[in-house]
Design goal:
The protein is 81% helix and 0% strand. The protein is an all-alpha fold and 326 residues long. It has two domains: 82 residues, no CATH class; 225 residues, no CATH class.
Length: 326
Amino acid sequence: MSVGAFVRERRARWDRLDALVDTATRRGAKRLAPEQVEALVHLYQGAAADLARLRALDAGPDLVGRLNRTVTRAHAQVYRRAAPSPSLRVFFLETYPRLVRERWRFVLASFLIVAGTAAMAHDAVQRHPDVVSDLTGIAGAELMGHHDPGDFTARFKEVASPVLSSLVTTNNIQVAFNAFALGVTFGVGTVYVLVVNGAMLGGYSGSFGESGLGRELWLTILPHGALELSAIIVAGAAGLLIGFGLWCPGRRTRLRALREDALAAVKLVAGLVPAFMVAGFFEGFVTPSDLLSPELKAGLGVAVAAVFWFYILAAGRPPVSEARAA
């Protein structure tokens, strides 16, 4: 291939790299969106290879010098960004919510699996009440007959609040970890975890609703469950991300897809720890409390979950002026 043909083929990529380096220089490399960082690294690697090719083709010094300057500037931005690790403040206020938004398709898929399974389980119990033990376990079936409807929160009062809060937080983190880690089964294990959680929710809903205790059920679940379920859905999205990458790696090898997607998935799950701690606090201290009415406790739970999703949707976005400039 002649120098002219090679330049015509590659110039658009060099110009794109120049533009990204200019943006990183002006705004700071840390403020780049993840897809911009990925493009910067990819284009930098390609330009470095192109520079070696131009030298092998004995291209003119002006052309070689121009591309060399671009590669040098890109090198500085790539390794400047990679050097310092972001603080927890930056991670939670900027990186994490942006990461969840970028994987919204997996979050939606996770939600639909849980919601769809819950709806089917609810309908199944309404039609065939005897299947409740299959959907919620023996303990779930026994719960129907061992608690007075007037004291529906009894099971939460049987354990000291700090102990219950700790147990619930640990259990929820374990569920989230399973949903994430089982992504390596090509997502099958993740789907199983989500289906089990959806089936339990729908089984309880159908069973208690059939007995006229549906309102009491939701007033008991919502204080802690709204945020808890939101976090499990995001954890499920992390597992689905890994599974999808293994099924459809694109131009990547499956090993590379696993390595790259697992890194993003770990961040998705790590960012949920505060949410699970808050949900555990609510289940240990708020749900069993007699100081607040059931309606107020449920309202608080829904409000906390709404704040979580508002944070996911709104935090980490660039200022309007920067977004327009980009």
